[in-house]
Amino acid sequence: MTSDDLRVLLIDSDPTSADRLREGLAGHVSCRQRASVAQARDLLLKDGADAVLLHLHPGDLSQVGECLRLLQAADRPVVVAVADETQPVLARALEAGAQDYVLTAEDGPAEMARTLRRARRRHAAARLRDRRLQACAADAADWLWEMDHRFVLTWLSCRGEGVFGHRPADLLGRPGLDLLAGGLEARRGDDYPLSLFRGREPFHDMVFQTGLATGRSIKASGRPFFAEDGRFLGYRGSARDATAESLAYRMQTVLWTLLEALPFGVLLFDADDRLITSNDPTGTASPAVAGLLRGADDALYTGAPFGMILLALALSGLLPEASAQPAAWAEAWMARPEDNPGRTLACADGGRVRLWQIRCNDGGILRLLTAEE
Prior knowledge:
Elements: E1 7-11, H1 15-25, E2 30-34, H2 37-45, E3 51-55, H3 64-73, E4 78-82, H4 88-96, E5 100-103, H5 109-139, E6 143-148, E7 153-156, H6 160-164, H7 168-171, H8 176-179, H9 194-198, E8 203-209, E9 217-226, E10 232-241, H10 243-261, E11 265-269, E12 275-278, H11 287-295, H12 306-315, H13 320-323, H14 326-332, E13 342-346, E14 352-359, E15 365-372
Parallel strand pairs: 1-2, 1-3, 3-4, 4-5
Antiparallel strand pairs: 6-7, 6-10, 8-9, 9-10, 11-12, 11-15, 13-14, 14-15
């Protein structure tokens, strides 16, 4: 044998046609024959064949699906041999995943051998693509998933193990709603998100409380996919662990609610002394602070330098001490917070506001505006 010799397993239940095919292929490939898939298991499990030539007869229609499932499980390229293209078994076999077919009445042994070799090359290329896809999925920041038409998990890339505490292989066959148990961003009824899938709706960056691990959240995107005849086949999508993000969002919401309830102004700046965020104290809680911040309202936007906010205050007319030389007054305030921890501002309406400056551990600056009695 040469390195290019192809080991073919011929499966044919008819002894006469099996002998004819085996004798014809003998000069082109190494061929062994079995009468059924069940009898061929020993060769398939022992890696005794590179490709399978499955000769189907008109009476084999009911067995096609089961035959090809067994052969696909053995991970071999399958070429179907039939008497003509109109045989129903051919269409069923191709739908089930056969790589190619030959016509026993027209294709000679040489053409059959070429078809089997092409099927082996395509099968090897498909396996290489699958390995590359799995490697990419394993290294991706997101992980990938797939559900069939019954919304059962059929594939999950290995990123899922860190989220759920299970191997992806252990989750296959479970309902997809275990993965996406309930939407957190919107409540559309008690059967949500099942209603989303039943409606064949695509979705993007939705947050779900997963039912596979208590307290864990994921952010997922998904899209339905269909057969050429329009039949719904399932969903495919990506997801990532959003537990920390969801917790941070909830904490941020609570913190912001607290900030808005404080009776004084809070302004947070980054290490470059640009505004990150500020609250909006109510006039009833602190009229002097609220009035002062409203005077600099046009400058209170994310990214605004502190010097620009000071200049807006100086030009507002709310601070008599700054009205004569607004620019010089603002520049005098641009000292390091450690050197200028704060001072009192006398307002034109008679109120007094204390501005405190506190250096944060990350280099940012927290500035507080409180009313003085």
